[in-house]
Amino acid sequence: MEYLETSAGNPLQYMADVYGRGLKYERPPFTFQSTEWEDLARERMSRESLGYVCGNASTGETTRKNHEAFQKWSIVPSRLVETSTYPSLKTELLNQKLPVPIAIAPIGVQRIFNPDGELATAAAAASEGVPYIYSTAAATSIEDVAKVNGNGVRWYQLYWPSNDHNDLTVSLLKRAKENGFSTLVVTLDTYKLGWRPSDLNNAYNPFLRSDTVGTALGFSDPVFRKNFKEKYGKEVEEDMKTAASDWAGMIFPGFSHGWEDLKFLRENWDGPIVLKGIQTVLDAKKCVELGIEGIVVSNHGGRQQDGGPASLDRLVKIVNEVGSKIDIIFDSGIRCGSDIAKALALGAKMVLVGRPYVYGLVLGGEEGVGHVLRSLLGDLTMNLHLAGIKSVSPEHLNRDCLEYSE
């Protein structure tokens, strides 16, 4: 519909356009109730794709804690704060000025949710001015994603192969840099997939599928293809099942790297490095000591390890210790504008949005993703505006804006 295009990148205009269309008795194609996106998407997904994106590690305890943690914090409004403009969402991160404080979290295999997959997500992110993080497990090549993302801000997320495959890692980093990915985001908590009952019940691991749902980056990589041919004496296309298994084994090697291995990444990447999956103060301090530019306080949305603490609770502790020494990004549990505001008030400079945009992708491809992003930013803007908070800058949005209660 027209208003989905004309108000791109402007969530408040989006709201005005929807009400304007209402005067002609037209209703928008997607709900604005963020709590309903998941249920609506569930109705459209296959059992396998539903289990993959909605499933969690073990009993889901960590995921539940992620959501419950937000409700312990309340945004306390101030009155008679004179304003002539709406709150600014501009933020500065990794020495870069950005128009909004949210980014697309890296999620792979997006074609299991919509045939357009990463192409739809990357295009919507560019339209909304939201940084896009490309997953190593994507179902679309990094080159094709870069094309549709155009002038958008894009970062590359690495599932880090073992040291036996450093030549592959170098190739992946080189391709990312050549295609305009400015920041390297290294996921630390997924060297092996977690114990996920929903995937096990469906006997479904998308990374082992040979139809390229999670293998596009590997199958298009010259080093991976060269090594595969030397090992098996044939091309990837001649035995895609084996190739998929090999690729999965490389990006999920089973065992973790050590701190000393970060030197290799620094030698082969000349931009900012962000480590995703930090949960302890000790690890955060180690990142500062090693000169890492940023960290993502994340527990992978509760998809990897169960029985852990809420990511928001860890954010508070980590910010208390290193908040002034390193750029901190938050991830895990974001579902609405007030969640974003609370994470920013607690010291994050940016927030990653994960599952909600996948639900948008399921419901409407590029338009669905754009709707989710615009809705979250509109929700955030109005929450700040009506609370008397002039911007997402720590000068205006900080812990003094919040009240904590058990």
What does this structure look like?
Helix 15 (311-322) links the parallel strand 9 and strand 10. The strands form three sheets. This protein has an eight-stranded parallel β-sheet with strand order 4-11-10-9-8-7-6-5. Strands 1-12 form a two-stranded antiparallel sheet. It is built from 17 helices and twelve strands. The longest helix has 32 residues, at 355-386. Helix 2 packs across helix 17 (355-386) and helix 6 packs parallel to helix 7 (142-149). The N and C termini lie far apart (44 Å). The chain has helices at residues 2-6, 11-22, 37-42, 47-54, 61-70, 117-128, 142-149, 166-178, 197-201, 216-219, 222-232, 240-251, 262-268, 281-289, 311-322, 337-345, 355-386; strands at 73-75, 91-93, 96-98, 102-104, 132-135, 154-158, 181-187, 273-278, 294-297, 327-330, 350-353, 402-404. The chain is globular and about 75 Å long. The chain has 406 residues and is an alpha/beta fold. The protein folds into two domains: 1-28, no CATH class; 31-404, Aldolase class I (TIM Barrel), CATH 3.20.20. The mean pLDDT is 96.
